[in-house]
Amino acid sequence: MPVETVVSVVLILGGAAVMGFSVQRVGGVMDVLPLVGESTRARLRRLIRIHAILMAVFVAGYVATAGAIALGWQLIGHIVVGLIFASGAFFVYLGITIQTRLVAEIVSTIADLVPICASCKRIRLADHSPDDMISWKPLEAYFGDTHQTKFSHGICPDCAVKLYPD
């Protein structure tokens, strides 16, 4: 077997190994889905599964190409390589779509979090140091400034019993 054929087969099988390893890592992407909003979780799960299936198809295509080249079936090898390249564009597009959607959903989830002190209920202003007391505003001031909310104070029954036991 000529050296260039051996090199081609080794490189193609190396690509198959990397793609096979990638198929095994899909579970890690699925682990991130709880951080994504429920409205898009099912769609992303479906896209990730399609992506994993495409990876498995790529592994099979790589092995078939390596086998065809090793056996000297040049025409079949070239056709399979063409199919791999043609489907590769869709594969990359799908991967980018999944990544973009996951990042956008996670950023949206994180952006909706409001850091609040577990004790005094002050809220930390966005992009401020948690160590700087000026960063922390009373709940009423925070919502009054950010949402133009006005508050009317009262006492709930539980607190009334605690504060005024008589």
What topology emerges from the helices and strands here?
Layout: H1 3-24, H2 26-30, H3 38-70, H4 74-111, E1 123-124, E2 136-137, H5 139-147, H6 157-163
Looking at the chains present, what oligomeric state does this protein adopt? single chain
The total count of strands amounts to: 2
**N→C terminal distance:** 98 Å
Mean pLDDT: 83
Question: How much is the radius of gyration in Å?
Answer: 28 Å
Number of helices: 6
Described by strand count, sense and barrel closure, the largest sheet is:
2 strands, antiparallel
Low-confidence stretches: none
Helical percent range? 55-70%
Give the ordered list of helices and strands: HHHHEEHH
Which short descriptors sum up this protein?
mainly alpha; 2 strands; 6 helices; rod-shaped; 166 residues
